[in-house]
Structures are given as structure tokens and as C-alpha cells.
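Support request from a user on the community tier.

User writes: "When I paste my C-alpha cells into the form, the page sometimes reloads and wipes my input. The last time it worked, I copied everything first. Here is what I submitted, just in case something in the input itself triggers the reload:"
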């Protein structure tokens, strides 16, 4: 026998041994997950309890949130969606998972976010969304003034400028109701321009130039890509994620960084105070020694969080209204009887539109901008969540999509019914309104909530005041045809707009 033969034989034996070890490891993991894991008594489908691969696959293909909702329908308010992962639809879970925690394990004031879900790429500097607790509370304090009511009053003329421009463009382009317009894009351009100005001191000129800025496309690509990296990390393949990022993501990030860096440099050169969303961080830049990269990461997150979500809700509300003529009629009646002219419509006056608020809340329920993926990791030895004892190290979450469509929380959960949110509604209802927490709760909840409502009310009021709207045939079943990563992969929402003044 030659040396080569012996080597070949050995290589074959090593490969067989390695394969056998992998199979034994996989089988024992599955047996452990099913029969010995601390979560073994929680209900869920056998495949999800046995391996994380099914959750990871669904997450990366944009269908995970929909599947989890179906599991809740079948198994109840708590479901084991992965071997080490529970999803809850009991509203109490909002407080137990995301709420402030006083005197809890290890002096922790919050249940921490897991790097698996929020820091899938290690090389990208953290921002407010994924910073650790200390850095997060510093950033949050610094930003809070820019999001206060008094700041919003100062920011109103800037917001109104873009809303005016949106309306002007829609009048120019609508061809008196003969040319359908993709409102999903128009909303996105508007919210993007507004937040661009509120962060960088200049808009992305989407409305001005009637074109999508490369950032808009990049933001969504990064969200989709993020779902895949989370899925890989979920399976313990973080090193693969880092390699894929180095090969594919790095050059895209570099291109985007150039855009951000130019805008940021120009923002940092502004002399004196600018009462916008970013001023609080800019002011403390030197005192806290915040690097340019960290500033840039926070600016990116503010633009993403402040544009996508608001545009999504406006699109969802418009679609749902146009698919429910009786609700549209009520809203038209409310808006058109409340104002004599467009000059009366402002952030203060739209606050009084109670039916509009109910419409927006119902849209946030049926089409939540963040469908899922706000997972936290149970600290210490374990915690009680919605009456269940959950072992330390478990991923726990409330998924908006599942919570908002739960038959335990809502009467007719799939029906668009804004009335359920009206306090003076005479109809008896079993709706648990506290189940809707579109902006999350606790120390990491949405800091932009008031801004979002102000922007959405203003834009919707202006549209309803100026136009009659009709959904184009190609935009029927608009929600059902989309995927979520876990932000929506929105498809065009084509609408015919007829100026009210030009109606025969
Ligand atoms: C309908 C509109 C919006 C919805 C539904 C929404 C929803 C949310 C949710 C669910 C979170 C928690 C994320 C987490 O736990 O990881 C969040 C965080 C955040 N949102 Fe919003 N958001 C909206 C609009 C806005 C706007 C207009 C801004 C302004 C820039 C904004 C800025 C932020 C920021 C900075 C955070 C991180 C807060 C922190 O970690 O302390 N959001 N948002």
C-alpha cells in the first residue's frame, strides 16, 4: 500500500468520523431541546421546538411574523417559536418584557436586547437602538429635548413646508383624478425629507426633484439584509455573517457612509443652536467624546426610524380607508367640517380630530410598521412573564403582528373598525386596547411618538381636505401581498386623487 493510499483511506475515515459527530451532535441537540430544555413544557410545533432553523428561514424570507401569529391562534398566548425563544400575546407581557424594572436581577433597569437580534454585524458602531444601557440612557437624555413638545412647536414651520410641497406636487401630478399616483412613495419622500431636515439641516430633495434618493433604496436593502444576518446569528453562525458582510455589505456601507459623512459634516458646521432632533447629541459631542462614526450611526438610525415607520402607517391608513368607504366618509366629514381653509390645519388643530386618531390607531393595529423582532433576553436565573416562569437566557418577545391580530385581545381582530378606539363608543366591546403598543413601552420605547402622530395627522388631514381618493384596481389586497423583514417590503399603493375644488 502506498503513502497516498494510506492518506486517502485516513481522509475518508476522518470525513466519516466528522460526519458521524455532526449527526450525533445534531440528534442530541434535538433530543435535548425536545425533552430536557428548560422551555420543554411550553407549547409550540415540534419542529420549532427542536431546531432554530425553521424560525431563521421564515425570518429571512419575510414570513416569520405571519407564521408566529398563526401559531398563537393554535397554541394560545405563549408559544415556543424556537428552541430558546418564546412569543407572547398577553398584553401583560409588554410591561414584563419591555417595562422599567425596579430592583430586579443584577440592578438591571431593563431586560436587555440580545446582540443576536440587534448587533448582527460587529464592525458597525452602535447607535441609540442597540447601545448598551449606559450609552443608551446618555443618548436618550441628549435627544429628549429635540423631541419635546416645545421643540416640536419650533419645528412645525419646517414640517409644514414639506407637507405644503407634497400637496402642491400631488395637485400638479394627479391630472384631476385621471392619473393614479403611488402614494406609498409620495409619503415616503415626504417623511424622508422632513426627517432629513430635522437631523441634517437639509432635506433629501425627494419632493423638490420628484425622485427617490439612493438612501431610501439603501435603507430598505439594509433592512432586508439585516433579516438575513439575524437569521444566521440565530443559528449560531455569527462568523459567517461577518464574512458575508465583509464580502458584500462593506462596499454598500462605504458608499452610504460617504452620503452621511457629507451631510453630517455640513450639519456640524452649523453655527449656533438649531432646535432639531440632532442638536442634543451634537452639543455634547466633545464633552462625551462621541466619535464621528458614532454620530453617523445615530443619524442613520434617526433617519430610518423617522421616515419608514411614519410613511408605512400613512400608507396603511390610506389603503384601509379606501377599502372601507363608510370609514372614509366619516373621516372626510370630520376633517372637512373642522376647517374652513387649509390655513386652519396645523399640528395643534389636527390634535382635536378624534376619529382621525382612531383611524390611525386602527391602522397601526392592522398594519404595524414594526411587525416583530423586538426580542429581549431574560437576565439572571429567570423571570415571570405574563404569569409564566421563564428561565434566564431565553429570548422573549411580543410581536406586534401577533398581538394585534389575537382573538383573545380583539373582537373581530381582522376587521378594520376604528370605532373600537373611540372612548365614547356606545358599542360594548371586548377589545383590550392596552394590547396595542405600536411604539413599544419602557425605557427603549419610541422617542419619536409625538412627532410621528403630529406628522401623520397633518399629512392625512391635508390630503382628506383637498382630495377625494379612489384605490386603483391594481392596489387591491395591498397588505396581504406584502412580506415583512420585519419592516414591510411595501408595494406600490396606486390611488386616484380628485381635487375637491374641481368636483363637478
Ligand atoms: C408610526 C411611526 C412610528 C412607529 C410605529 C415607531 C415604532 C418604534 C418602536 C416599536 C420602537 C422600539 C424599537 C426597539 O425596541 O428596538 C421605536 C424606537 C425608536 N423610534 Fe420610533 N416609531 C415611529 C416613528 C418614529 C419617528 C418619527 C422617529 C423620529 C426620528 C422615531 C425614532 C425612534 C428612535 C430614535 C427609537 C429608539 C429609541 C430608544 O432606543 O431609546 N420613531 N420606534
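"...and here is what came back when it finally went through:"
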Amino acid at each position: 500500500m502506498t503513502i497516498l493510499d494510506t492518506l486517502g483511506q485516513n481522509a475518508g475515515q476522518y470525513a466519516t468520523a466528522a460526519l458521524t459527530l455532526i449527526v450525533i451532535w445534531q440528534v442530541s441537540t434535538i433530543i435535548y431541546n425536545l425533552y430536557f430544555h428548560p422551555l420543554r413544557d411550553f407549547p409550540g410545533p415540534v419542529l420549532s421546538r427542536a431546531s432554530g432553523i425553521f424560525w431563521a428561514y421564515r425570518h429571512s424570507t419575510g414570513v416569520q411574523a405571519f407564521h408566529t401569529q398563526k401559531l398563537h391562534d393554535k397554541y394560545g398566548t405563549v408559544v415556543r417559536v424556537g428552541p430558546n425563544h418564546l412569543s407572547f400575546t398577553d398584553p401583560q407581557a409588554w410591561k414584563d418584557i419591555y417595562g422599567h424594572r425596579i430592583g430586579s436581577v443584577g440592578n438591571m433597569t431593563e431586560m436587555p436586547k440580545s446582540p443576536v437580534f440587534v448587533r448582527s454585524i460587529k464592525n458597525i458602531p452602535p447607535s441609540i437602538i442597540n447601545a448598551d444601557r449606559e450609552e443608551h440612557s446618555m443618548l436618550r437624555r441628549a435627544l429628549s429635548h429635540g423631541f419635546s413638545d416645545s421643540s416640536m412647536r419650533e419645528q412645525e414651520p419646517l414640517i409644514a413646508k414639506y407637507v405644503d410641497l407634497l400637496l402642491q406636487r400631488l395637485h400638479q401630478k394627479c391630472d384631476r383624478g385621471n392619473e393614479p399616483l403611488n402614494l406609498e412613495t409620495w409619503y415616503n419622500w415626504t417623511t424622508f425629507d422632513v426627517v432629513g431636515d430635522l437631523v441634517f439641516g437639509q432635506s433629501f430633495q425627494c419632493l423638490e426633484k420628484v425622485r427617490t434618493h439612493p438612501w431610501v433604496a439603501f435603507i430598505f436593502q439594509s433592512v432586508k439584509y439585516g433579516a438575513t444576518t439575524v437569521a444566521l446569528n440565530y443559528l449560531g453562525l455569527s462568523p459567517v455573517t461577518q464574512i458575508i458582510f465583509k464580502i458584500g455589505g462593506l462596499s454598500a456601507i462605504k458608499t452610504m457612509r460617504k452620503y452621511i459623512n457629507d451631510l453630517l459634516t455640513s450639519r456640524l458646521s452649523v453655527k449656533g443652536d438649531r432646535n432639531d432632533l440632532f442638536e442634543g447629541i451634537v452639543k455634547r459631542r466633545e464633552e462625551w467624546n462621541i466619535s464621528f462614526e458614532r454620530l453617523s450611526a445615530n443619524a442613520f438610525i434617526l433617519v430610518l426610524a423617522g421616515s419608514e415607520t411614519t410613511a408605512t402607517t400613512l400608507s396603511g391608513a390610506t389603503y384601509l380607508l379606501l377599502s372601507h368607504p363608510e370609514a372614509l366618509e366619516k373621516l372626510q366629514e370630520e376633517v372637512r367640517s373642522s376647517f374652513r381653509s387649509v390655513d386652519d390645519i396645523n399640528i395643534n388643530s389636527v390634535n382635536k380630530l378624534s376619529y382621525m386618531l382612531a383611524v390611525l390607531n386602527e391602522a397601526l393595529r392592522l398594519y404595524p410598521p414594526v411587525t416583530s423582532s423586538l426580542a429581549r433576553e431574560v437576565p439572571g436565573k429567570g423571570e415571570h412573564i405574563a404569569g409564566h416562569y421563564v428561565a434566564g437566557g431565553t429570548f422573549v418577545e411580543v410581536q406586534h403582528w401577533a398581538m394585534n391580530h389575537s382573538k383573545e385581545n380583539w373582537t373581530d381582530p381582522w376587521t378594520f373598525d376604528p370605532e373600537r378606539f373611540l372612548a365614547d363608543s356606545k358599542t360594548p366591546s371586548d377589545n383590550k386596547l392596552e394590547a396595542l403598543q405600536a411604539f413599544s413601552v419602557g425605557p427603549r420605547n419610541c422617542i419619536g411618538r409625538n412627532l410621528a402622530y403630529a406628522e401623520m395627522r397633518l399629512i392625512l388631514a391635508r390630503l382628506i381636505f383637498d382630495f377625494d381618493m379612489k384605490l386603483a384596481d391594481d392596489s387591491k389586497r395591498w397588505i396581504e401581498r406584502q412580506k415583512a423583514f420585519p419592516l414591510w417590503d411595501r408595494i406600490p399603493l396606486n390611488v386616484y386623487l380628485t381635487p375637491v375644488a374641481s368636483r363637478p
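Agent notes: The reload is a front-end session timeout and is unrelated to the input. The pocket of protoporphyrin IX containing FE is lined by residues 128-129, 140, 195, 277, 302, 305-306, 309-310, 313, 369-370, 374, 438-440, 444-448, 451-452 (CB under 6 Å). The longest strand covers residues 494-499. Escalated to web team.
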